[in-house]
From TrEMBL, chain A:
Disordered: annotated segments: 1-21
InterPro entries the UniProt entry points to: AAA+_ATPase, ABC_AA/LPS_Transport, ABC_transporter-like_ATP-bd, BCA_ABC_TP_C, P-loop_NTPase
Organism, scientific name: Prauserella cavernicola
Keyword entries, A-Z: ATP-binding, Nucleotide-binding, Transport
GO MF, any single term: ATP binding
Keyword ATP-binding: yes
Boundaries of every ABC transporter domain copy: 22-268
Pfam families: ABC_tran (PF00005), BCA_ABC_TP_C (PF12399)
Ranges of compositional bias, category Polar residues: 1-12
GO cellular component: plasma membrane
Listed Gene3D superfamilies: P-loop containing nucleotide triphosphate hydrolases (3.40.50.300)
Identification of the protein by name: ABC transporter ATP-binding protein
UniProtKB/TrEMBL annotation, chain B:
Claim: Protein biosynthesis is one of the keywords in the record: no
Membrane topology: Multi-pass membrane protein
Annotated protein name in UniProt: Branched-chain amino acid ABC transporter permease
Keyword Kinase found: no
Source species of the chain: Prauserella cavernicola
Transmembrane regions: 12-29, 60-82, 94-117, 137-160, 189-211, 217-235, 266-284
GO terms, molecular function: transmembrane transporter activity
Length: 277, 292
């Protein structure tokens, strides 16, 4: 499979690319007369962090909405381990192992932290409706294992001490971690992080960077964020969107030096800076 | 004094029925943010189902079980077939559809079962217990009414608080979109919510009917009282619905006893207006929002 970003990123000394876990090919989304995404392709590979950057309105969130099944693309396909994904329904994609955090976090206000994260583990539930309705022992065992998964995720992001609290009573950085824990409780193979660093201080951001790097041992990560330091430090590859199109793709170094990126993304500011030198 | 005791006891057993009906409304409100105005008509329909079976020679309990099972199926069917197409649209559309269902079920019942009054049996005696010399307004049937509502409330609370299925239903109630993102089959949760609500509604219908007359519109007043009870309880929590039901039952019983039975409906509406003006999120809003 040839994709725009694969040929460009491979440096002569680098080991061969792992086969993509998830690919979007030629994804186009139109809202009425507006083309939000125009022929966007991207391949997420195991053990890699793939950054998606671009100015506001470039289509980053729309792209995530396609990847998690909220928005159906007008054209293009998604592939999971090289098989086309049929029936792009959020619950189905979640069941396959795609998890996503939301910009607005989307925590359930009336559920405790522990319960919020427990819902995230749902894809590992083995028993149906009837057994939990009638409280069969099978359901109890199932529930124990889900709780263990949720506890592990809470532990991993360092919010295990907040389990009985309601999200509304917690400071924003803690809520963000709870949202991440909920995504991790699904033990995803592909994690989509939507602006994970927004609203975080410098310390929290450094910690987040380390956490995300650590996650690559288990999963592929695709990350949308505005904080260039974080993106450049954490990502193995970057895709740059502008007006719904891919304007550049490659390693952080390649993207940083790409003239199209400087024009589109850094815009006037970068040019003004360049003139001063 | 004896009068007050009688009004209180009568109010509690009526209140338990309003509580059950309010529970049914709350279940659907939590899941879909709509008030199901057809709840009473659906309950009336399943009560007629029970009556038909009982009149054909089956026992009261067979009819009772059939009505609850019928409620389960009817609730699921209504959600899948009638409500599904309007879900996700403006809530008003769905509410109008439930009003349409209300009229349709009532008309259908009149066609199928006749528009006359028919008496409905009670499984237990309707003679008040005697305390010393006095006969109080508390019958074996009242005990059954209160016990069955308590059982249903405990079962629902256990379902929501302690099971993974209940957790998914609560999550879907808070945010369908996020729940889908986490892999929850929200559609099934909605179907189950409607089915459970219809079972509880059917129970209320059977309890109201016991020892009374039924006709296609016999649930109409209960819809109003149950709705007031649900609003009083904040619409969100099963516990609030039950408390609201008991409060309404007592209040209406006192109004009926001391002021005159013609004022009961007026009193219910006055309570509704007062609650909406003073505590629009219900008497227990803060606690209720936490406890669900």
């Amino acid at each position: 499979m040839t994709l725009p970003d694969t040929s460009e990123t491979r440096s002569p000394s680098a080991p061969p690319d792992p086969a993509p876990l998830f690919t979007a090919e030629g994804v186009t989304v139109r809202f009425g007369g507006l083309t939000a995404l125009d022929d966007v392709s991207l391949a997420a590979r195991p053990r890699e962090v793939h950054g998606v950057i671009g100015p506001n309105g470039a289509g980053k969130t729309t792209f995530f909405n396609v990847c998690c099944g909220f928005v159906r693309p007008d054209q293009g396909t998604l592939r999971w381990r090289d098989e086309p994904v049929r029936g792009l329904h959020p619950a189905r994609l979640a069941g396959m192992g795609i998890a996503r955090t939301l910009q607005g976090l989307g925590l359930f206000a009336g559920l405790t932290v522990a319960e919020n994260v427990l819902v995230g583990a749902d894809r590992f539930r083995r028993t149906g409706f009837a057994s939990s309705l009638f409280a069969l022992p099978r359901a109890a065992a199932d529930e124990r294992s889900l709780r263990e998964r949720a506890d592990r995720a809470l532990e991993e992001v360092g919010v295990a001490s907040y389990t009985g609290r309601y999200p509304g009573s917690l400071p924003y950085p803690v809520r963000k971690r709870v949202a991440l824990a909920r995504a991790l409780a699904a033990d995803p193979e592909l994690l989509l992080l939507d602006e994970p660093a927004s609203g975080l201080g410098a310390d929290d951001m450094t910690e987040l960077g380390e956490l995300v790097r650590g996650l690559t041992e288990r999963m592929a990560v695709v990350l949308v964020d505005h904080h260039m330091d974080l993106v450049m430090a954490v990502c193995d590859r970057i895709t740059v969107l502008d007006f719904g199109r891919v304007v550049a793709a490659g390693s952080p170094a390649q993207v940083r030096d790409d003239q199209a990126v400087i024009d589109a993304y850094l815009g006037e500011e970068a040019r003004a800076g360049g003139d001063d030198d | 004094m004896q009068q007050f005791v009688n009004f209180t006891l009568g109010g509690l057993s009526q209140g338990a029925i309003y509580a059950a009906f309010a529970l049914a409304l709350v279940l659907i409100w939590r899941a879909t943010r709509i008030i199901n105005f057809a709840q009473g008509a659906m309950a009336m329909f399943t009560t007629y189902l029970a009556l038909t079976l009982i009149e054909s020679g089956l026992s009261y309990w067979a009819g009772f079980a059939a009505a609850l099972a019928g409620g389960l199926v009817l609730g699921a069917l209504v959600e899948r077939v009638v409500m599904r197409p309007v879900e996700g649209g403006p809530e008003l559309n769905a509410v109008i559809v439930t009003l349409g269902l209300f009229v349709a079920f009532q008309a259908l019942a009149a066609i199928l079962f006749g528009a006359t009054f028919q008496s409905f049996p009670a499984p237990f005696g309707l003679r008040g217990f005697t305390v010393g010399e006095m006969t109080i307004a508390f019958t074996p049937f009242s005990v059954f009414v209160i016990a069955s509502v308590v059982v249903v409330m405990l079962a629902l609370t256990a379902l929501f608080r302690f099971t993974d299925l209940g957790l998914r239903m609560r999550a879907s109630a808070f945010s369908q979109e996020v729940s889908r993102l986490l892999g929850v089959r929200v559609g099934r949760m909605l179907t189950l919510g409607w089915a459970l609500a219809a079972v509880v509604g059917s129970l209320a219908g059977l309890l109201i009917a016991g020892g009374n007359l039924v006709h296609p519109a016999y649930m109409d007043a209960v819809i109003v009282y149950g709705f007031v009870a649900a609003v009083l309880g904040g619409l969100e929590s099963p516990g609030g619905a039950v408390a609201g039901g008991l409060i309404i039952g007592l209040a209406l019983s006192y109004v009926s006893g001391y002021l005159g039975s013609e004022l009961v409906t007026l009193a219910a509406l006055a309570i509704l207006v007062a609650v909406l003006l003073v505590r629009p999120r219900g008497l227990f809003s803060r606690v209720a929002a936490r406890r669900v």
